[in-house]
Design brief:
The protein has 166 residues and is an alpha+beta fold. It has a single domain, classed as Nucleoside Triphosphate Pyrophosphohydrolase (Alpha-Beta Complex). It contains 3 helices and 7 strands. Strands 1, 2, 3, 4, 5, 6 and 7 form a 7-stranded mixed sheet that branches. Strand 1 and strand 2 form a beta hairpin. Monomer.
């Protein structure tokens, strides 16, 4: 038990694990640590369900419409960024599904350099360039056949109600 009176809150993120013909869709993005690879992923926004968030993030980062088919799992990882003295724990909800062809004229989200399709072997070989250890872990779990029904997530209607401030 800590004496800190501030409640600890992990950063909640969503990720899309997308595979077609043995290749996985990743994004190459600019980060404070340099050019890194990640699953299409990002922070969950207030008033947004995890499914809505992963659809939005996948579109913003890949320019493709994502259709979630299953929950892959919930993952936690801690990231310490020495350059900013930042210590963050991430709680990631990872989904698997399919994507459309690229939306014509779509401009990728700020910081995303490009999208790439990599085989599992190429993903493993590029581990030193991954934004987090969860990139490969989610892909390995996908390859192993891990799937949970989307109904495992229950969203209460109160999520969409306006926030009342005291």
């Amino acid at each position: 038990m800590s004496n800190n009176t501030e409640r600890w809150k992990p950063a909640v993120t969503v990720a899309a694990i997308i595979e077609e013909q043995g290749r996985y869709l990743l994004v190459e993005e600019e980060t404070p640590e340099g050019l890194q690879l990640n699953n299409p992923a990002g922070h969950l926004d207030p008033g947004e369900s995890p499914l809505e968030g992963v659809v939005r993030e996948a579109l913003e980062e890949t320019g493709r419409h994502f259709r979630p088919e299953a929950l892959l799992g919930l993952y936690m990882a801690r990231f310490v960024r020495p350059s900013r003295l930042e210590d963050v724990t991430y709680l990631r909800l990872a989904f698997t599904g399919t994507v459309s062809e690229p939306v014509p004229g779509w401009v990728l989200d700020k910081g995303i350099v490009r999208t790439v399709w990599l085989s599992l072997e190429e993903v493993r070989a590029s581990a030193a360039r991954h934004r987090s250890p969860l990139v490969l872990r989610c892909i390995e779990d996908h390859r192993a056949g891990r799937r949970l029904p989307l109904e495992a997530l229950q969203i209460d209607p109160s999520l969409y109600e306006p926030c009342v401030k005291n």
